[in-house]
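User: Quick sanity check before I run a bigger batch. Here is a single chain. Can you write out its predicted 3D structure?
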Amino acid sequence: VQLVESGGGLVQPGGSLRLSCAASGFSFSTYAMSWYRQAPGKERELVARIASAGGNTYYADSVKGRFAISRDNAKNTVYLQMNSLKPEDTGVYSCNGRLQTTWGVNDYWGQGTQVTVSS
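Assistant: Done. Predicted structure follows.
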């Protein structure tokens, strides 16, 4: 199982970035996919989630209206479009795949990609 994030970097306040997470080794289209972030000295927080079929999404209040999560099940990839970035969006962004089964939860994580918003 692999989740490989890309697209992070340094961006000025007000700028945009698009993160990608390429998945392999599991049945991607059956998993809910999420983006989490962890800022220095803070706990990891859920940023956005998308259902397996892509119809339902969730956003943290802090990113509503600025971020958009999407997925391409044919490419086994989930995206996070981040617009109007703020310094407080700085952190390591990780993607997560989760499937609730009869026997428990399958939870997969990527290594993360750094996003720094600074002038």
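The two ends are 37 Å apart (CA to CA).

User: Great, the batch can go ahead then.
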